[in-house]
Amino acid sequence: MAVNYGSKRVVVGAHYGLRDWLSQRITGALMALFTLIVLAQLLLTSGPISYDKWAGIFASQWMKVLTFAVIAGLLYHVWVGMRDVWMDYVQPVGIRLALQIFTIVWLVGCAGWAIQVLWRV
User: Fold this and answer.
1) Please, what's the b/e burial string for 91-120 (b: 16 or more CB within 10 A of its CB; e: otherwise)?
2) What is the pTM of this model?
């Protein structure tokens, strides 16, 4: 029979720490790089900033795919942050679950709207 010396350590939580920290940094860097790309395209083209200029930037297929990848990264970035806020500050499990479900539904709706906007340009 094994003898257990000392008290058993009780560990709670989902242990997302390093993975969440890293995903937040990667998606943040992706958004920053995308912002620099869009700013460079705006600054390197001549003429006033108009709807036609914006539509021209996002008209090519590679830019639409890149933009959607950044939007997907943004949505994941938001999900990780909001999930952590709900887990840290909302104690009643039912309310926390409802808020997490609402957050997921909202983010999926935002993704659908982003697809609609991007491929309509």
Assistant:
1) eeeeebeebbeebeeebeeeeeebeeeeee
2) 0.80
